[in-house]
Structures are given as structure tokens and as C-alpha cells.
Design brief:
Elements: E1 5-6, H1 17-27, E2 29-30, H2 41-54, H3 58-65, E3 76-77, H4 104-109, E4 116-117, H5 120-132, H6 138-144, E5 156-157, E6 160-162, E7 168-171, E8 178-183, E9 190-195, H7 204-214
Antiparallel strand pairs: 1-2, 3-4, 5-6, 6-7, 7-8, 8-9
């Protein structure tokens, strides 16, 4: 997010991950950054590096090095609805009766950023285990989450926003889905709100309000 790398969104549909990776390599752009800016392509590049270094698929590496080390019964790679029949449908605000699902081609473009699905318990379990040092050492986690204050400030690092008192905040939009998470530094207090209908205003303020009512972290 401070690399200066960017990739313009494309409406092109890709048959597989390799085809999308080829597109990324030929269309990746760099500009000297002057502020923090989210760019999912940074994660895409990391998945490419992982596959090149390990000679394994990104999915296999995650399954072996993370999922197999704990219990995530409701976590799957969302390559298609067929592979995860329990995946909830998304619905538009305009018509609550009509499902609006993410296309397979769009799932390919989210490799490393949003091509996994899980329930609230698995999501909490992942971050709780991550903080405890189950997947990587606490020292390595601290390095991954270390902020740089120059030439500009930001509070997003390593996939989450870092709020006051060590509170972690995760939020995003994808298709019609809007997941929001607030987690205390000791992982003892957490609010996870998952919506399958994209509305404005977002549900993030509601999740924050619920978290504040349960925790002293923001007081």
C-alpha cells in the first residue's frame, strides 16, 4: 500500500490464475507514492512470489502452513460456489429477492485478497491464533505490523487497520458482501459483522458501536 504499484481494474474475464498473472505482469504500473493507497495488486504479487519460491500453489501453501495448524471447519477457497455450497448469496439493495453472486472470473482477480470464505467463528479464531504466535512468531508479526511515519502516516499494515490501544479493525467490500471486524489487543473482545447486502451508509459504524459497548479499548 506504500509500494507505488498499481493495476487498473479490468473487465476482462480470465480462464485461470495463470492468465490473470500474465495480465498483471504486463499491465503493472509504478508511480512514486506520496500517500497511502490501497492496492490489491500488492497481495496478488505476493501470491505469485509464494508460488515461485515454493513451487506450490498459493492454495496449497495456505492450507498446509495455516489451515492445517489449527481448526477451520468453515473456511474454504471460493473459486466457485460449487466448491462451497454453504456460501451465502449476495443481494442488492434495489431488489432483496434477487441474488447477485460474484462471478468466477472476478474470484480469480481476488487471489490473495478475497478468494476465501469463512464464518465468523473461523475468522475470530484465525486472528486469535495469529496474535498468539501460532502461525508466525510474535517477533515476526511485530515486524510485519511495524509502521513507518515518513514521508506520510497511515494505520493500515499487514491486512488490518491498527487503531488506538492495539485494537485491530478489518473492513472491506466485495461484490455485495461487507465484512467488518473489531478485535481487542488481547483477542478477548471481538465484534464481527458480516453483511451480504451492500448498503449505504455501511454497517461499519454499527460494528464499532457494538465493540465500544463491550470494550474499554476506545474509552
Amino acid at each position: 500500500m506504500t509500494s507505488g504499484l498499481s493495476l487498473e481494474k479490468t473487465a476482462v474475464d480470465f480462464a485461470n490464475s495463470d492468465a490473470y498473472f500474465d495480465y498483471v505482469c504486463s499491465h503493472l504500473e509504478y508511480g512514486k507514492p506520496d500517500k497511502w493507497k490501497y492496492g490489491g495488486v500488492n497481495y496478488t504479487l505476493l501470491t505469485m512470489i509464494i508460488e515461485r519460491v515454493t513451487s506450490k500453489s498459493y492454495e496449497d501453501v495456505v492450507s498446509e502452513d495455516i489451515l492445517a495448524k489449527s481448526s477451520f471447519p468453515h473456511t474454504k477457497f471460493s473459486t466457485s460456489r460449487d466448491s462451497n455450497p454453504l456460501l451465502s448469496h449476495g443481494y442488492s439493495k434495489a431488489d432483496r429477492t434477487k441474488a447477485v453472486d460474484v462471478k468466477y472470473a472476478n474470484l480469480l482477480k481476488e487471489k490473495g485478497t478475497g478468494n476465501m470464505s469463512m464464518d465468523t467463528l473461523d475468522l475470530y479464531h484465525f486472528y486469535s491464533e495469529l496474535i498468539s504466535g501460532r502461525f508466525i512468531s510474535k517477533e515476526m508479526l511485530s515486524q510485519m505490523w511495524q509502521m513507518k511515519t515518513q514521508p506520510y502516516t497511515y494505520d493500515y499494515k499487514g491486512g488490518v487497520y491498527h487503531k488506538g490501544n492495539g485494537v485491530l479493525y478489518g473492513h472491506g467490500f466485495w461484490g455485495q458482501y461487507e465484512p467488518t471486524m473489531y478485535l481487542s489487543a488481547d483477542a478477548q473482545t471481538c465484534v464481527i459483522l458480516m453483511s451480504n447486502s451492500k448498503d449505504k451508509p455501511t454497517y461499519a459504524p454499527l460494528a464499532k458501536s457494538l465493540f465500544e459497548s463491550l470494550s474499554d479499548s476506545f474509552r
